[in-house]
Write a structure and sequence with these properties.
The protein is α+β, with helices and mostly antiparallel strands. The chain contains 21 helices and 19 strands. It has a 3-stranded antiparallel beta sheet with strand order 15-16-18, with no helix packed on it. A two-stranded antiparallel sheet has the order 1-5. A two-stranded antiparallel sheet has the order 2-8.
Length: about 675
C-alpha cells in the first residue's frame, strides 16, 4: 500500500501542468530555465519527481536484459543476434548507449535546475534540506554511472544557460569521482535516516553511505587506481553496518518476492527503483523486471504472464554455486514453462552438462509472484534493487582486505562474507531443521510420467519435491528436485515416490501405482477389490484385482538428509585462503553468486582489471557447445576498448570539445 501511495503521488506530480518533464518540453528554445517556476514547495517536489524519473527510464528498459548482461553471468538468448550491445558489438550510434547517455544528462540538468532554485520558495528548512539532499545524491549517482561506463565525461554543475552552450570538454575521471564523493557526503548530512523513511524509493542515509562505499571502491580500482579510497570505502560501509538497523532477510528468495509484491524490506533492500501498475493503465510508470529477465512464457497462463526470456546464464555462473547453495536454483531457473494454460513446469537435470546449463533462464524475478494484474507484456510494477545490505557486507570485506593486500581476520569474515553465505545455505532461517538433500537410492523403472513425491513425519512440515523421469530406455527416475525444504524436523522424515495401491478405489486406464516395491500400470479400468497385484510380469486378472494392473517395473526410492545444525554450511575461514589474491578470487565469484543480474557485473570486472580476460574466457567456454556456441558472441567481440562505451554520435556531433574514448 505504501508503494502504491508513493508512486501515485510521483505520477500525479509528473502529470501536473507544472511538472518538470512537461515544463522542459515547453520552455522557450533559447533557454532551459524558467524564473517563474520553483515558487512553491509543491513545485520543488514535482521537480524532484522529475529527477527520480531518470531512474525509471534507464532501469525500466536499457539495463533490463540489454546492458547488464555485458559480463560473464549471462548472454542474450537469441542465436540470430549478431549486432548491438547484447553481443558486445557496439558502434558510436548504438541506440541503447545513446539513450542512457541522454537520459543521464537530462536527469543531471533537471537536478541542476532544482538545486539552482532550491531557496526560492518559502518552506521549512527541514523539508528544503531533504529535497536538496536527494537532488544532490541523484545527480551524483547519475555521474557515477557516467564515469564508470564512459570514463572522462563533462562535469556540469550548473543549469545549461542556453541551447547554444554545447561545447563542453570532458573532465578527468578522478575529478568527477571527487565531485561525486563531495556531493554525496553533503547529501548524507541532509537526507533522513533509514528509520525515518517508509519505502526504499526515496533516499535515506544508509543508501548514501552504501553508495559512497561503492563509489570509493570504483575509484580505488581501474582506471583511476586511487588506492587511498579503500579506507574511505571501509568507513562508509562500516557506518551502514554499525547503524544496527540492517540485517539480511533470512530467506534469499523472499528479497525478490517482496519486490514483485509491492513490499518493502529496508533492512535488506536499502534503495530500489520504483515501478508501478501495468502497461495499459495510463500512468506510464512500469518497468520490465521479470519480463526481460525471466523464464520464457508466451502469456497463455495469466498467472505467469508474458516473459521474453531474453537472457540465459553462462555455465560459469551455474557451476560457481556449491551444492546446497539456495541462490543457484532461485537465480537460475531449474525448470522451463510450457506454453499452455495452465502452464506446467518441466524440471531440468540437477547435474547438467555445460550445454544444458547454458539453456537455463535467469529467474531472479518470477512473474508468478506478482500481485498486480493483468500481467502484461508491456510493463509491470516489480521494483529493481540498486543497493542491498548483502552488497554492503561484501564491499566492507573487500575494502578491509584491499587496504593492505591481506586476507581479512576471521571476525571480519564472520561479520560479512559468512553472513551472506549462511543465508545462502539456509542457516539464517528460524526453522533450520530442514531437508538438505534428497538422493535417489533406487532409480526404479517403467514410469510413464514423473511420479509424485510424499514427505511425511519427522515432526516438521512444509517439504516438497518433484521428480524427473527418463524419456526412453528403462524409464527410470533421473532426478529429484527439492522445491521446499520445510522446517522444524526433529528426525528424518519418510519419503515415498508414487502412489500406493488402495482397495475399493476406481482406477482409470494409465494410472500408475506401486505395491510391494513393484510398479503397475492400469490397463483396464475398474474398482479394486481387497486383493492387490503382486505379480512380477504380465497382467493381473480383473476378477481378482478389480481393475487390470500390468507390471511396469520397479518402484523408485530415495533417502533424505537433514541439515546439520552444528555446522554453518558455506562458512569460509581465513586459513582457506593462501593469500590476498586467493581471497579476491573467491570474493569476486561470491559477488556474482549473490548479486547476479543486478546491473553491476561489468563495472566490477572493469574496476578489478579483469574485463577483457574474463570475456575472452567466456568465448572459449562456449566454443565447444555446438548449437549453444552463440552464447560466446559477446566474448568473441570484446576488445580492449570495450572497458568503456563510446561517446555517442548524438553528443560528438554537437559537442566539438568532447572527443572520443580510446579505440572508438
Amino acid at each position: 500500500m505504501e508503494k502504491k501511495l508513493y508512486i501515485c503521488i510521483v505520477v500525479a506530480l509528473l502529470l501536473m501542468g507544472t511538472s518538470c518533464s512537461k515544463f522542459l518540453d515547453t520552455v522557450p528554445r533559447d533557454t532551459v530555465t524558467n524564473l517563474n517556476y520553483y515558487e512553491t514547495e509543491q513545485q520543488l517536489n514535482s521537480a524532484l519527481a522529475g529527477v527520480f524519473q531518470t531512474l525509471t527510464k534507464i532501469y525500466g528498459h536499457s539495463f533490463q536484459g540489454v546492458m547488464s548482461l555485458d559480463g560473464d553471468e549471462g548472454f542474450y538468448n537469441r542465436s540470430a543476434q549478431n549486432t548491438g550491445i547484447a553481443v558486445n558489438l557496439v558502434t558510436t550510434s548504438e541506440t541503447n548507449v545513446t539513450n542512457v547517455w541522454t537520459a543521464l544528462y537530462s536527469g543531471i540538468e533537471r537536478a541542476n535546475l532544482l538545486l539552482a532554485n532550491i531557496n526560492k520558495p518559502a518552506m521549512s528548512d527541514e523539508n528544503r534540506a531533504v529535497i536538496k539532499g536527494e537532488a544532490l545524491f541523484l545527480r551524483s549517482y547519475f555521474y557515477f554511472l557516467l564515469v564508470s561506463y564512459w570514463g572522462d565525461v563533462p562535469l556540469l554543475l550548473e543549469p545549461t544557460s542556453s541551447v547554444a552552450h554545447t561545447n563542453n570538454p570532458r573532465t578527468p575521471s578522478k575529478e568527477v569521482y571527487e565531485q561525486i564523493i563531495k556531493d554525496m557526503t553533503e547529501a548524507e548530512s541532509l537526507v533522513p535516516g533509514v528509520r525515518q523513511v517508509s519505502n526504499a524509493g526515496h533516499i535515506n542515509k544508509s543508501a548514501v553511505r552504501g553508495l559512497l562505499a561503492r563509489v570509493c571502491l570504483y575509484m580505488a580500482g581501474d582506471p583511476v587506481k586511487d588506492v587511498s579510497k579503500y579506507e574511505m570505502a571501509q568507513t562508509w560501509a562500516k557506518k551502514v553496518i554499525d547503524d544496527g538497523y540492517h540485517s539480511l532477510n533470512p530467506d534469499y528468495r523472499q528479497v525478490f518476492i517482496n519486490m514483485s509484491q509491492d513490499k518493502y524490506d529496508l533492512k535488506e533492500s536499502i534503495w530500489e527503483v520504483e515501478f508501478y501498475g501495468f502497461s495499459s493503465d495510463g500512468y506510464n510508470a512500469t518497468g520490465k523486471v521479470g519480463i526481460h529477465y525471466g523464464i520464457s512464457h508466451g502469456g497463455q497462463d495469466p498467472n505467469y504472464g508474458y516473459c521474453f526470456g531474453y537472457v540465459a546464464v553462462t555455465p560459469k555462473l551455474y557451476f560457481s554455486y556449491a551444492k546446497g547453495d539456495w541462490r543457484r536454483d532461485w537465480n537460475i531457473a531449474p525448470y522451463s514453462l510450457s506454453s499452455t494454460n495452465p502452464a506446467t513446469k518441466t524440471y531440468r537435470p540437477v547435474y547438467p552438462t555445460a550445454m544444458q546449463a547454458s539453456e537455463r533462464s535467469v529467474a531472479k524475478w518470477k512473474r508468478e509472484y506478482e500481485t498486480v494484474y493483468p500481467k502484461e507484456q508491456g510493463g509491470n510494477s516489480v521494483n529493481y534493487p540498486l543497493l542491498r545490505y548483502a552488497d554492503v557486507l561484501l564491499m566492507y570485506a573487500e575494502a578491509v582486505a584491499s587496504q593492505n593486500g591481506t586476507v581479512p581476520d576471521q571476525e571480519v569474515l564472520d561479520q560479512t562474507v559468512n553472513q551472506v553465505r549462511r543465508r545462502a545455505f539456509g542457516n539464517l532461517l528460524p526453522n533450520r531443521e530442514m531437508i538438505d538433500t534428497i538422493t535417489i537410492s533406487t532409480a526404479g523403472s517403467g514410469y510413464t510420467s514423473a511420479p509424485p513425491v510424499t514427505i511425511a513425519g519427522g515432526g516438521g512440515a512444509g517439504a516438497a519435491a518433484v521428480t524427473a523421469v527418463a524419456t526412453s530406455g528403462t524409464r527410470a527416475l533421473t532426478a529429484i528436485y527439492v522445491e521446499n525444504r520445510g522446517g522444524n524436523y526433529n528426525s528424518t522424515p519418510t519419503i515415498t515416490i508414487g502412489e500406493s495401491w488402495m482397495p475399493n478405489v476406481l482406477y482409470a486406464v494409465g494410472k500408475q501405482v506401486y505395491n510391494d516395491n513393484k510398479l503397475y500400470t492400469v490397463t483396464t479400468a475398474g474398482t479394486t477389490t481387497v486383493t492387490p497385484p503382486t505379480q512380477s510380469a504380465g497382467a493381473s486378472a480383473a476378477a481378482t484385482t478389480g481393475a487390470v494392473f500390468t507390471y511396469a517395473g520397479v518402484q523408485a526410492k530415495a533417502t533424505i538428509i537433514l541439515t546439520n545444525l552444528s555446522v554453518f554450511k558455506g562458512d569460509v575461514k581465513k586459513t582457506d585462503f593462501a593469500d590476498y589474491a586467493k581471497f579476491m578470487e573467491f570474493l569476486k565469484a561470491e559477488r556474482s553468486r549473490e548479486l547476479a543480474f543486478e546491473a553491476m557485473r561489468k563495472r566490477d570486472l572493469v574496476r578489478w582489471g579483469d574485463y577483457y580476460r574474463v570475456m575472452k574466457q567466456i568465448a572459449l567456454d562456449f566454443a565447444p557447445l555446438g548449437s549453444r556456441a552463440f552464447g560466446g558472441k559477446a566474448g568473441e567481440n570484446t576488445s580492449e576498448r570495450d572497458v568503456l562505451w563510446p561517446i555517442p554520435d548524438a553528443e560528438t556531433t554537437v559537442n566539438k570539445a568532447i572527443g572520443q574514448n580510446p579505440g572508438w
